[in-house]
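Human: Here is a favour to ask of a fellow structure person. Comparing notes only helps if you start from a blank page. Give me a protein, with the fold worked out from its sequence. Please set it down just below, with no commentary around it:

Assistant:
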Amino acid sequence: MRSIRTTALTAVASATLVASLTGVALAGTTSPAAAAPSPDLSVTNVTASLQALQDIATANGGNRATGRPGYKASADWVRARLDAAGFTTQLQSFSTSSGTSYNVIADWPGGDPEHVVMTGAHLDSVSAGPGINDNGTGSAAILEAALAWAASGNTARNHLRFAWWGAEEQGLLGSNYYMRTLPTADKDRIDLYQNYDMVGSPNPGYFVYDDNPVGNEARDAMTAYYTSKGIPWEYIDVQGRSDHASFRSYGIATTGMYAGGEDIKTSAQAQKWGGTSGRAFDPCYHRSCDTMANINSTALDRNLDMIGHMVWLYADKDLGGTSVPPTGTNLLANPGFESGAASWTGTSGAITSNTGRPAHAGSWKAWLGGNGRTATESVQQQVTIPASATAASLSYWLRTDTAETGSTAYDTLKVQVVSGGTTTTLRTVSNAGATATWAQTTHSLLAYRGKTITVKFLATEDSSLQTSFVLDDTAVTTS
Protein backbone atom coordinates (compact mmCIF):
# COMPACT_ATOMS: atom_id res chain seq x y z
CA MET A 1 0.00 0.00 0.00
CA ARG A 2 1.09 3.53 -0.71
CA SER A 3 1.94 5.67 2.33
CA ILE A 4 -1.22 6.50 4.27
CA ARG A 5 -2.27 8.46 7.38
CA THR A 6 -5.93 8.03 8.24
CA THR A 7 -8.51 8.42 10.99
CA ALA A 8 -10.63 5.34 11.69
CA LEU A 9 -14.30 5.47 12.68
CA THR A 10 -15.76 2.75 14.90
CA ALA A 11 -19.09 1.20 13.85
CA VAL A 12 -21.24 -1.79 14.80
CA ALA A 13 -23.43 -3.73 12.34
CA SER A 14 -26.98 -4.55 13.35
CA ALA A 15 -28.08 -8.12 14.03
CA THR A 16 -30.59 -7.90 11.21
CA LEU A 17 -27.87 -6.99 8.74
CA VAL A 18 -25.73 -9.85 9.96
CA ALA A 19 -28.61 -12.24 9.43
CA SER A 20 -29.38 -11.00 5.94
CA LEU A 21 -25.80 -11.10 4.69
CA THR A 22 -24.43 -14.18 6.39
CA GLY A 23 -27.47 -16.45 6.34
CA VAL A 24 -27.71 -16.60 10.16
CA ALA A 25 -31.40 -16.80 11.15
CA LEU A 26 -32.79 -14.43 13.77
CA ALA A 27 -35.28 -15.68 16.31
CA GLY A 28 -38.70 -15.84 14.72
CA THR A 29 -37.32 -15.61 11.18
CA THR A 30 -36.45 -18.08 8.47
CA SER A 31 -32.95 -18.20 7.04
CA PRO A 32 -32.94 -17.64 3.28
CA ALA A 33 -31.93 -20.45 0.96
CA ALA A 34 -28.17 -20.35 0.64
CA ALA A 35 -25.95 -20.82 -2.37
CA ALA A 36 -22.56 -22.47 -1.96
CA PRO A 37 -21.50 -22.06 1.71
CA SER A 38 -18.58 -19.81 2.53
CA PRO A 39 -15.32 -21.74 2.42
CA ASP A 40 -12.68 -22.33 5.07
CA LEU A 41 -9.69 -21.47 2.89
CA SER A 42 -6.26 -22.89 3.63
CA VAL A 43 -3.89 -20.53 5.41
CA THR A 44 -1.25 -23.25 4.93
CA ASN A 45 -1.55 -22.83 1.17
CA VAL A 46 -1.33 -19.05 1.49
CA THR A 47 1.77 -19.36 3.67
CA ALA A 48 3.37 -21.55 0.99
CA SER A 49 2.53 -18.90 -1.62
CA LEU A 50 4.10 -16.21 0.56
CA GLN A 51 7.23 -18.32 0.86
CA ALA A 52 7.34 -18.59 -2.93
CA LEU A 53 7.18 -14.78 -3.19
CA GLN A 54 9.88 -14.50 -0.54
CA ASP A 55 12.06 -16.93 -2.51
CA ILE A 56 11.51 -14.90 -5.67
CA ALA A 57 12.58 -11.72 -3.89
CA THR A 58 15.62 -13.40 -2.34
CA ALA A 59 16.75 -14.64 -5.75
CA ASN A 60 16.26 -11.21 -7.33
CA GLY A 61 18.00 -8.59 -5.24
CA GLY A 62 15.77 -8.80 -2.17
CA ASN A 63 12.65 -7.18 -3.65
CA ARG A 64 9.80 -7.56 -6.12
CA ALA A 65 9.55 -3.93 -7.19
CA THR A 66 8.24 -2.68 -10.54
CA GLY A 67 10.96 -2.66 -13.17
CA ARG A 68 13.05 -5.19 -11.25
CA PRO A 69 13.34 -8.86 -12.26
CA GLY A 70 11.64 -9.98 -9.05
CA TYR A 71 8.39 -8.34 -10.10
CA LYS A 72 8.21 -10.02 -13.50
CA ALA A 73 9.07 -13.35 -11.84
CA SER A 74 6.23 -12.79 -9.35
CA ALA A 75 3.75 -12.03 -12.13
CA ASP A 76 4.82 -15.08 -14.14
CA TRP A 77 4.50 -17.30 -11.07
CA VAL A 78 0.98 -16.09 -10.26
CA ARG A 79 -0.13 -16.43 -13.87
CA ALA A 80 1.21 -19.99 -14.14
CA ARG A 81 -0.80 -21.06 -11.08
CA LEU A 82 -3.97 -19.59 -12.58
CA ASP A 83 -3.39 -21.08 -16.02
CA ALA A 84 -2.98 -24.51 -14.48
CA ALA A 85 -6.30 -24.12 -12.65
CA GLY A 86 -8.25 -23.31 -15.82
CA PHE A 87 -8.47 -19.52 -15.73
CA THR A 88 -8.27 -17.43 -18.88
CA THR A 89 -5.35 -15.09 -18.17
CA GLN A 90 -3.55 -12.17 -19.68
CA LEU A 91 -0.30 -10.46 -18.76
CA GLN A 92 -1.00 -6.79 -19.48
CA SER A 93 2.17 -4.74 -19.90
CA PHE A 94 2.54 -0.99 -19.45
CA SER A 95 5.39 1.49 -19.11
CA THR A 96 6.55 3.25 -15.95
CA SER A 97 9.50 5.45 -15.03
CA SER A 98 11.12 2.35 -13.54
CA GLY A 99 10.61 0.21 -16.64
CA THR A 100 7.94 -2.15 -17.89
CA SER A 101 5.40 -3.43 -15.39
CA TYR A 102 2.60 -5.95 -15.68
CA ASN A 103 -0.95 -6.63 -14.53
CA VAL A 104 -2.12 -10.24 -14.26
CA ILE A 105 -5.82 -10.48 -15.16
CA ALA A 106 -7.64 -13.80 -14.69
CA ASP A 107 -11.21 -14.62 -15.73
CA TRP A 108 -13.05 -17.70 -14.56
CA PRO A 109 -15.09 -19.11 -17.48
CA GLY A 110 -18.83 -18.61 -17.33
CA GLY A 111 -21.13 -16.45 -15.28
CA ASP A 112 -23.18 -13.56 -16.63
CA PRO A 113 -20.76 -11.40 -18.65
CA GLU A 114 -23.01 -8.38 -18.05
CA HIS A 115 -22.39 -8.64 -14.29
CA VAL A 116 -18.69 -8.83 -13.44
CA VAL A 117 -17.37 -9.09 -9.87
CA MET A 118 -13.67 -8.26 -9.58
CA THR A 119 -11.28 -9.04 -6.73
CA GLY A 120 -7.82 -7.50 -6.76
CA ALA A 121 -4.56 -6.84 -4.92
CA HIS A 122 -1.31 -5.19 -5.86
CA LEU A 123 1.57 -7.58 -6.46
CA ASP A 124 4.57 -5.23 -6.40
CA SER A 125 6.78 -4.44 -3.42
CA VAL A 126 8.83 -1.34 -2.76
CA SER A 127 12.51 -1.55 -3.66
CA ALA A 128 13.54 -1.60 0.02
CA GLY A 129 12.33 -5.14 0.69
CA PRO A 130 10.43 -8.25 -0.41
CA GLY A 131 6.98 -6.89 0.47
CA ILE A 132 5.58 -10.01 2.09
CA ASN A 133 2.87 -8.24 4.10
CA ASP A 134 2.69 -5.32 1.64
CA ASN A 135 1.32 -6.83 -0.45
CA GLY A 136 2.25 -10.47 -0.64
CA THR A 137 -0.55 -11.19 1.82
CA GLY A 138 -3.30 -9.66 -0.30
CA SER A 139 -1.90 -11.21 -3.47
CA ALA A 140 -1.55 -14.70 -1.97
CA ALA A 141 -4.97 -14.52 -0.30
CA ILE A 142 -6.89 -13.68 -3.47
CA LEU A 143 -4.86 -16.28 -5.36
CA GLU A 144 -5.98 -18.91 -2.86
CA ALA A 145 -9.60 -17.75 -3.19
CA ALA A 146 -9.36 -17.99 -6.98
CA LEU A 147 -7.79 -21.45 -6.92
CA ALA A 148 -10.32 -22.68 -4.34
CA TRP A 149 -13.20 -21.48 -6.51
CA ALA A 150 -11.71 -23.26 -9.52
CA ALA A 151 -11.48 -26.50 -7.53
CA SER A 152 -14.93 -26.19 -5.96
CA GLY A 153 -17.02 -27.22 -8.96
CA ASN A 154 -19.43 -24.37 -8.23
CA THR A 155 -21.17 -22.49 -11.03
CA ALA A 156 -21.22 -18.69 -10.62
CA ARG A 157 -24.25 -16.57 -11.41
CA ASN A 158 -21.94 -13.58 -12.06
CA HIS A 159 -18.68 -13.49 -13.99
CA LEU A 160 -15.63 -13.69 -11.68
CA ARG A 161 -12.44 -11.78 -12.50
CA PHE A 162 -9.29 -11.52 -10.39
CA ALA A 163 -6.44 -9.03 -10.82
CA TRP A 164 -2.89 -8.60 -9.53
CA TRP A 165 -1.73 -5.03 -10.13
CA GLY A 166 1.71 -3.77 -10.99
CA ALA A 167 3.24 -0.43 -9.94
CA GLU A 168 0.73 0.31 -7.16
CA GLU A 169 3.59 1.63 -5.07
CA GLN A 170 4.35 4.19 -7.80
CA GLY A 171 0.86 5.67 -7.74
CA LEU A 172 -1.71 2.99 -8.68
CA LEU A 173 -0.27 2.87 -12.19
CA GLY A 174 -1.33 -0.67 -13.04
CA SER A 175 -4.98 -0.39 -12.02
CA ASN A 176 -5.18 3.08 -13.57
CA TYR A 177 -3.81 1.73 -16.85
CA TYR A 178 -6.29 -1.16 -16.82
CA MET A 179 -9.29 1.10 -16.30
CA ARG A 180 -8.07 3.80 -18.66
CA THR A 181 -7.70 1.33 -21.53
CA LEU A 182 -10.79 -0.78 -20.77
CA PRO A 183 -13.64 -0.03 -23.23
CA THR A 184 -16.51 1.93 -21.69
CA ALA A 185 -18.94 -0.94 -22.25
CA ASP A 186 -16.66 -3.27 -20.27
CA LYS A 187 -16.32 -0.74 -17.44
CA ASP A 188 -20.11 -0.62 -17.25
CA ARG A 189 -20.23 -4.40 -16.82
CA ILE A 190 -18.22 -4.30 -13.55
CA ASP A 191 -20.68 -4.28 -10.64
CA LEU A 192 -18.16 -4.53 -7.80
CA TYR A 193 -14.43 -4.28 -7.21
CA GLN A 194 -12.97 -5.63 -3.94
CA ASN A 195 -9.42 -4.63 -2.94
CA TYR A 196 -7.17 -6.44 -0.46
CA ASP A 197 -3.99 -4.59 0.52
CA MET A 198 -2.03 -5.81 3.58
CA VAL A 199 -4.23 -8.42 5.29
CA GLY A 200 -1.67 -10.05 7.63
CA SER A 201 -0.07 -7.15 9.52
CA PRO A 202 1.93 -8.30 12.57
CA ASN A 203 0.15 -5.98 15.06
CA PRO A 204 -3.17 -6.18 13.24
CA GLY A 205 -6.37 -4.22 13.09
CA TYR A 206 -9.46 -4.98 11.02
CA PHE A 207 -10.25 -1.95 8.89
CA VAL A 208 -13.03 -1.94 6.27
CA TYR A 209 -12.94 0.63 3.46
CA ASP A 210 -15.58 3.32 3.82
CA ASP A 211 -14.77 5.88 1.13
CA ASN A 212 -17.22 5.07 -1.67
CA PRO A 213 -20.93 5.82 -1.20
CA VAL A 214 -21.89 3.46 -4.04
CA GLY A 215 -20.08 0.56 -2.33
CA ASN A 216 -22.08 0.49 0.88
CA GLU A 217 -23.83 -2.83 0.24
CA ALA A 218 -20.55 -4.72 -0.16
CA ARG A 219 -18.98 -2.78 2.72
CA ASP A 220 -21.88 -3.84 4.92
CA ALA A 221 -21.58 -7.45 3.78
CA MET A 222 -17.95 -7.39 4.89
CA THR A 223 -18.64 -5.86 8.29
CA ALA A 224 -21.54 -8.26 8.80
CA TYR A 225 -19.17 -11.17 8.22
CA TYR A 226 -16.71 -9.89 10.84
CA THR A 227 -19.54 -9.29 13.31
CA SER A 228 -20.88 -12.81 12.77
CA LYS A 229 -17.42 -14.17 13.68
CA GLY A 230 -17.08 -11.97 16.76
CA ILE A 231 -14.25 -9.94 15.20
CA PRO A 232 -14.39 -6.19 16.02
CA TRP A 233 -13.83 -3.90 13.04
CA GLU A 234 -13.48 -0.23 12.20
CA TYR A 235 -14.28 1.81 9.14
CA ILE A 236 -11.38 3.50 7.43
CA ASP A 237 -11.22 6.13 4.72
CA VAL A 238 -8.10 5.20 2.77
CA GLN A 239 -8.49 8.37 0.70
CA GLY A 240 -7.88 6.76 -2.66
CA ARG A 241 -4.45 5.39 -1.75
CA SER A 242 -4.97 1.87 -3.05
CA ASP A 243 -6.15 0.31 -6.29
CA HIS A 244 -9.87 0.53 -5.57
CA ALA A 245 -9.57 4.25 -6.34
CA SER A 246 -9.05 3.44 -10.02
CA PHE A 247 -12.52 1.86 -10.05
CA ARG A 248 -14.21 4.31 -7.70
CA SER A 249 -13.35 7.18 -10.04
CA TYR A 250 -15.56 5.56 -12.70
CA GLY A 251 -18.52 5.22 -10.33
CA ILE A 252 -18.00 1.50 -9.69
CA ALA A 253 -18.91 0.12 -6.25
CA THR A 254 -15.80 -0.76 -4.24
CA THR A 255 -14.87 -2.13 -0.87
CA GLY A 256 -11.80 -3.63 0.72
CA MET A 257 -9.91 -4.56 3.86
CA TYR A 258 -6.67 -3.35 5.45
CA ALA A 259 -4.93 -4.76 8.55
CA GLY A 260 -2.91 -1.59 9.17
CA GLY A 261 0.43 -0.10 8.19
CA GLU A 262 2.62 2.62 9.65
CA ASP A 263 -0.05 4.19 11.87
CA ILE A 264 0.21 3.58 15.62
CA LYS A 265 -2.24 1.27 17.39
CA THR A 266 -4.08 3.03 20.18
CA SER A 267 -4.71 1.58 23.62
CA ALA A 268 -8.42 1.25 22.79
CA GLN A 269 -7.57 -0.67 19.63
CA ALA A 270 -5.15 -2.92 21.50
CA GLN A 271 -7.85 -3.63 24.06
CA LYS A 272 -10.31 -4.92 21.47
CA TRP A 273 -7.87 -6.49 18.98
CA GLY A 274 -4.94 -7.50 21.15
CA GLY A 275 -1.42 -6.69 20.13
CA THR A 276 0.70 -3.79 21.36
CA SER A 277 -0.51 -0.22 21.78
CA GLY A 278 1.91 2.56 20.95
CA ARG A 279 3.41 0.42 18.19
CA ALA A 280 2.74 0.52 14.44
CA PHE A 281 0.31 -2.00 12.98
CA ASP A 282 3.21 -2.94 10.71
CA PRO A 283 6.58 -1.75 12.04
CA CYS A 284 8.25 -3.14 8.90
CA TYR A 285 6.05 -1.15 6.52
CA HIS A 286 8.10 -0.38 3.37
CA ARG A 287 11.26 -1.75 4.98
CA SER A 288 13.65 -4.63 4.38
CA CYS A 289 12.21 -6.51 7.36
CA ASP A 290 8.86 -7.03 5.60
CA THR A 291 9.65 -10.73 5.29
CA MET A 292 7.99 -14.01 6.22
CA ALA A 293 8.64 -13.13 9.86
CA ASN A 294 6.43 -10.03 9.49
CA ILE A 295 3.08 -11.86 9.35
CA ASN A 296 0.38 -12.44 11.96
CA SER A 297 -1.01 -15.84 10.97
CA THR A 298 -4.23 -15.41 12.96
CA ALA A 299 -5.11 -12.18 11.17
CA LEU A 300 -4.11 -13.70 7.84
CA ASP A 301 -6.35 -16.74 8.43
CA ARG A 302 -9.33 -14.65 9.52
CA ASN A 303 -9.04 -12.27 6.58
CA LEU A 304 -8.48 -15.11 4.12
CA ASP A 305 -11.80 -16.67 5.13
CA MET A 306 -13.49 -13.26 4.90
CA ILE A 307 -12.16 -12.88 1.34
CA GLY A 308 -13.46 -16.34 0.49
CA HIS A 309 -16.84 -15.41 1.95
CA MET A 310 -17.02 -12.25 -0.18
CA VAL A 311 -16.04 -14.09 -3.37
CA TRP A 312 -18.57 -16.87 -2.75
CA LEU A 313 -21.31 -14.40 -1.74
CA TYR A 314 -20.95 -12.17 -4.80
CA ALA A 315 -20.43 -15.06 -7.18
CA ASP A 316 -24.08 -15.94 -6.62
CA LYS A 317 -25.62 -12.62 -5.59
CA ASP A 318 -28.45 -11.34 -7.78
CA LEU A 319 -26.97 -8.27 -9.46
CA GLY A 320 -29.63 -8.16 -12.13
CA GLY A 321 -28.68 -11.30 -14.05
CA THR A 322 -30.28 -14.72 -14.03
CA SER A 323 -28.71 -17.83 -12.54
CA VAL A 324 -30.71 -20.25 -14.70
CA PRO A 325 -31.97 -18.88 -18.05
CA PRO A 326 -35.59 -19.69 -18.93
CA THR A 327 -36.22 -22.77 -21.04
CA GLY A 328 -35.56 -22.08 -24.72
CA THR A 329 -33.36 -19.04 -24.10
CA ASN A 330 -30.39 -18.79 -26.46
CA LEU A 331 -27.37 -18.87 -24.15
CA LEU A 332 -25.10 -17.45 -26.85
CA ALA A 333 -24.84 -13.66 -26.92
CA ASN A 334 -24.97 -11.96 -30.33
CA PRO A 335 -25.80 -15.33 -31.96
CA GLY A 336 -26.43 -13.92 -35.43
CA PHE A 337 -23.34 -11.66 -35.38
CA GLU A 338 -25.44 -8.56 -36.12
CA SER A 339 -23.52 -6.69 -33.38
CA GLY A 340 -20.24 -7.48 -35.10
CA ALA A 341 -17.69 -9.32 -32.96
CA ALA A 342 -19.39 -8.45 -29.64
CA SER A 343 -19.29 -11.41 -27.18
CA TRP A 344 -17.21 -13.54 -29.56
CA THR A 345 -13.45 -14.04 -29.51
CA GLY A 346 -11.13 -15.45 -32.13
CA THR A 347 -9.62 -14.26 -35.40
CA SER A 348 -9.86 -10.51 -36.00
CA GLY A 349 -12.03 -9.72 -38.99
CA ALA A 350 -13.62 -13.16 -39.23
CA ILE A 351 -17.00 -11.72 -38.21
CA THR A 352 -17.91 -9.42 -41.06
CA SER A 353 -20.63 -7.73 -43.13
CA ASN A 354 -18.50 -8.08 -46.29
CA THR A 355 -20.88 -8.73 -49.20
CA GLY A 356 -18.50 -11.20 -50.86
CA ARG A 357 -20.44 -13.98 -49.15
CA PRO A 358 -24.11 -13.82 -48.09
CA ALA A 359 -25.39 -13.97 -44.52
CA HIS A 360 -28.15 -16.43 -43.69
CA ALA A 361 -30.15 -13.56 -42.21
CA GLY A 362 -29.31 -9.91 -41.71
CA SER A 363 -25.97 -8.55 -42.91
CA TRP A 364 -23.34 -10.06 -40.59
CA LYS A 365 -21.91 -13.56 -40.37
CA ALA A 366 -18.69 -15.36 -39.45
CA TRP A 367 -16.69 -15.96 -42.63
CA LEU A 368 -13.94 -18.47 -41.89
CA GLY A 369 -11.45 -19.44 -44.58
CA GLY A 370 -11.69 -18.11 -48.11
CA ASN A 371 -8.00 -17.14 -48.14
CA GLY A 372 -6.55 -19.54 -50.74
CA ARG A 373 -3.41 -19.92 -48.63
CA THR A 374 -2.28 -21.65 -45.47
CA ALA A 375 -4.38 -20.18 -42.66
CA THR A 376 -6.22 -21.06 -39.45
CA GLU A 377 -9.17 -18.97 -38.24
CA SER A 378 -11.70 -19.38 -35.45
CA VAL A 379 -14.59 -17.83 -33.55
CA GLN A 380 -15.65 -18.98 -30.10
CA GLN A 381 -17.80 -18.08 -27.10
CA GLN A 382 -18.18 -19.41 -23.54
CA VAL A 383 -21.53 -20.53 -22.13
CA THR A 384 -22.65 -22.34 -18.99
CA ILE A 385 -25.09 -25.25 -19.40
CA PRO A 386 -27.43 -25.24 -16.35
CA ALA A 387 -27.06 -28.27 -14.12
CA SER A 388 -30.86 -28.61 -14.14
CA ALA A 389 -31.06 -28.97 -17.93
CA THR A 390 -32.88 -32.04 -19.26
CA ALA A 391 -31.89 -31.20 -22.85
CA ALA A 392 -29.19 -28.98 -24.32
CA SER A 393 -28.23 -28.42 -27.92
CA LEU A 394 -25.99 -26.41 -30.24
CA SER A 395 -27.39 -25.40 -33.63
CA TYR A 396 -26.03 -23.28 -36.46
CA TRP A 397 -26.47 -22.53 -40.16
CA LEU A 398 -23.49 -23.20 -42.43
CA ARG A 399 -22.76 -22.47 -46.10
CA THR A 400 -19.60 -23.89 -47.70
CA ASP A 401 -18.17 -23.06 -51.14
CA THR A 402 -14.79 -24.00 -52.56
CA ALA A 403 -12.38 -23.72 -55.47
CA GLU A 404 -10.97 -27.16 -54.62
CA THR A 405 -11.96 -30.20 -56.70
CA GLY A 406 -12.18 -33.89 -55.98
CA SER A 407 -12.94 -35.79 -52.80
CA THR A 408 -9.75 -35.03 -50.84
CA ALA A 409 -10.32 -32.90 -47.70
CA TYR A 410 -7.80 -30.10 -48.14
CA ASP A 411 -9.64 -27.49 -46.07
CA THR A 412 -11.73 -28.21 -42.97
CA LEU A 413 -14.08 -26.63 -40.43
CA LYS A 414 -14.25 -28.29 -37.02
CA VAL A 415 -17.16 -27.67 -34.66
CA GLN A 416 -15.72 -28.14 -31.17
CA VAL A 417 -16.51 -27.97 -27.47
CA VAL A 418 -13.73 -27.08 -25.02
CA SER A 419 -14.43 -28.15 -21.43
CA GLY A 420 -11.95 -28.39 -18.57
CA GLY A 421 -8.97 -28.30 -20.91
CA THR A 422 -10.36 -31.09 -23.14
CA THR A 423 -11.38 -30.35 -26.73
CA THR A 424 -14.07 -32.52 -28.35
CA THR A 425 -14.83 -32.24 -32.07
CA LEU A 426 -18.55 -32.61 -32.74
CA ARG A 427 -18.31 -32.38 -36.51
CA THR A 428 -15.76 -31.88 -39.29
CA VAL A 429 -16.82 -30.27 -42.58
CA SER A 430 -14.47 -30.07 -45.59
CA ASN A 431 -14.24 -28.76 -49.13
CA ALA A 432 -15.31 -32.22 -50.36
CA GLY A 433 -19.00 -32.09 -51.14
CA ALA A 434 -19.38 -28.31 -50.70
CA THR A 435 -22.63 -27.14 -52.32
CA ALA A 436 -22.75 -23.39 -51.55
CA THR A 437 -26.19 -23.79 -49.97
CA TRP A 438 -27.29 -23.07 -46.41
CA ALA A 439 -28.00 -26.00 -44.09
CA GLN A 440 -28.74 -26.16 -40.38
CA THR A 441 -27.06 -28.69 -38.06
CA THR A 442 -27.81 -29.51 -34.40
CA HIS A 443 -25.64 -31.28 -31.80
CA SER A 444 -26.54 -32.39 -28.27
CA LEU A 445 -24.67 -30.69 -25.43
CA LEU A 446 -26.43 -32.53 -22.60
CA ALA A 447 -23.16 -34.21 -21.59
CA TYR A 448 -21.95 -30.76 -20.48
CA ARG A 449 -24.79 -29.82 -18.13
CA GLY A 450 -23.53 -28.05 -15.03
CA LYS A 451 -20.32 -27.07 -16.85
CA THR A 452 -18.92 -23.94 -18.44
CA ILE A 453 -17.81 -24.70 -21.99
CA THR A 454 -16.41 -22.91 -25.02
CA VAL A 455 -18.22 -23.45 -28.31
CA LYS A 456 -15.60 -23.11 -31.05
CA PHE A 457 -15.65 -23.09 -34.84
CA LEU A 458 -12.14 -23.71 -36.23
CA ALA A 459 -11.28 -23.48 -39.95
CA THR A 460 -7.99 -24.65 -41.47
CA GLU A 461 -6.93 -24.10 -45.11
CA ASP A 462 -4.00 -25.53 -47.01
CA SER A 463 -1.60 -23.57 -49.21
CA SER A 464 -3.78 -23.10 -52.30
CA LEU A 465 -7.38 -22.77 -53.52
CA GLN A 466 -9.91 -21.23 -51.18
CA THR A 467 -12.72 -22.83 -49.21
CA SER A 468 -15.17 -20.48 -47.45
CA PHE A 469 -17.07 -21.68 -44.38
CA VAL A 470 -19.79 -19.11 -43.66
CA LEU A 471 -21.49 -19.45 -40.27
CA ASP A 472 -24.66 -17.70 -39.06
CA ASP A 473 -27.61 -17.81 -36.67
CA THR A 474 -25.98 -19.92 -33.93
CA ALA A 475 -27.81 -21.07 -30.82
CA VAL A 476 -27.24 -22.95 -27.57
CA THR A 477 -30.59 -23.75 -25.99
CA THR A 478 -31.69 -25.86 -23.03
CA SER A 479 -34.86 -27.22 -21.50
